[in-house]
Amino acid sequence: MKTLLLTIGLFLTLTSCQSEEKQTKENLSADTHKITVAEVLQTNNYTYLLAEENGTKTWLAVPKMNANVGDVYYYNGGMLMENFASKELGRTFDKIYFLESVRTTPDMPKQNMVNNPHGHNVTGHNEKPKAEKTEIKVTPAEGGITIEELFANKSKYNGKTVKIKGVVVKFSPQIMKKNWIHIQDGTEHNGDFDLTVTSQSEVKEGDTVVVEGKISLDKDFGYGYFYKVIMEDAAVK
Q: pTM to 2 decimals?
């Protein structure tokens, strides 16, 4: 009798494990990755994770977050960068994937909400709440315009070079071989007060700068990097 009970108990245990494993597999879509963190490197703007998945290790970069060795995360998508050099870390990654976010559950967030590394509202795509407005008051640059004027007349400025003075509220270096700068000047139009600027110049948060570059509308870089208004290849003074 004892032998029979032990056999039944073992059978139920194995069946339960198989059921749980099956359930986990069913919850993971074909493009969902489940990784275990093997190493963590922190910089001012990004967290670098050496991720292990099915015996293979891959470097991931996500917007700065708290992470520890042994943590388990899930993610979808990602942008592959080859021979990516991190100045802060002083090293070059043969291959690294830049992600909008990682999560602790297999399921995608409700309403496909994901974090864009640039902190910008991605209209018509995977969206993140708008950047937080900072209390700023800036005198417009001579011969320049304000962020309010740009957004209010965006069609007028499409394809044209403009000059705007503002304060740097976010700086993300070397994504897609560009530095990404967010500026605000205290003005806004219909809730738009944060302008994304790409440049080769380096700045710091809190700097007051004058940016001058070409305006583009509805710019889609892929991987969720969509901007209804962006200033590209700007000179920064």
A: 0.57
Angle at the Cα of 149 (from 145 to 151), degrees rounded to 5?
A: 125
Q: Do domains 30-112 and 147-236 have the same CATH topology?
A: yes
pLDDT at residue 47 is higher than 60: yes
What separation, in Å, do the N-terminal and C-terminal C-alpha atoms of the chain show? Answer: 86
What's the confidence (pLDDT) of residue 125? 36
| C-alpha–C-alpha distance, residues 230 and 194, integer Å | 10
Where do the structural domains in the chain lie, given as residue ranges? 30-112, 147-236
Strand partners, 18: none
| pLDDT tens-digit map of 211-228 | 999 999 998 876 557 789
| Per-residue model confidence as pLDDT tens digits over 132-174 | 788 888 999 999 999 999 999 999 999 999 999 999 998 888 7
What is the assigned CATH class of domain 30-112?
mainly beta
pLDDT at residue number 222 = 65
Task: Give residue-wise pLDDT tens across range 71-91.
Answer: 999 998 888 888 888 888 999
- Nearest-CA neighbor of 36 among 70, 7, 60? 70
Q: What six digits make up the tokens of 30?
A: 């074909």
Closest CA to 215 of 192, 201, 195: 195
Burial class (CB in 10 A: 0-12, 13-18, 19+), 191: exposed
Q: Which fold has domain 147-236?
A: OB fold (Dihydrolipoamide Acetyltransferase, E2P) (2.40.50)
- The sheet with strand 79-86 has its strands ordered as 72-76, 32-42, 46-53, 56-63, 91-98, 79-86
Give the separation between CA 196 and CA 204, rounded to whole angstroms: 15
| Predicted pLDDT at 119 | 45
